[in-house]
Amino acid sequence: MDKLGGVLDEADFQRIHAKVKADRAALEQRLSQLDRPDFSPAEQAGLAKKLVERFQEAAPANRELLVSLIERVELTAGKQVIIKFRFKQLETD
């Protein structure tokens, strides 16, 4: 509208238009990279490890969460406590 109204001359309009197009292309590329999650095994293992560490830090403060993850607790004749969880044990490196 500014170009049509004579507020901007052709050179300024072209410069602004080129910058806006470049910015848009950069943002679209960034968006496409964010939409594509990294499913590499190493990345997934690292993510799982970080999530477990976050859980371990927060778990003592959240009794309800802990109770929901435990299937049952057994006490043996030798007074050993065996805790059965509702999920498979993670493999550690």
3D structure, described in words:
Strand 1 and strand 2 (81-85) form a beta hairpin. The chain has helices at 2-5, 10-35, 41-58, 63-69; strands at 70-75, 81-85. The chain has a two-stranded antiparallel ribbon with strand order 1-2. It has two domains: 2-35; 41-85, no CATH class. It is rod-shaped, with a radius of gyration of 28 Å. It is mostly helical. The protein starts with a helix and ends in an 8-residue tail after the last strand.
Descriptive labels:
93 residues, 2 strands, two-stranded antiparallel sheet, mainly alpha, rod-shaped, 4 helices
If strands are numbered along the chain, what order do they take across the biggest sheet?
Answer: 1-2
- Structural class, please? mainly alpha
What fraction, in percent, of the residue positions are helical?
A: 55-70%
End-to-end gap: 62 Å
Structure described in brief:
Helices cover 59% and strands 12% of the residues.
Topology:
Blueprint: H1 2-5, H2 10-35, H3 41-58, H4 63-69, E1 70-75, E2 81-85
Antiparallel strand pairs: 1-2
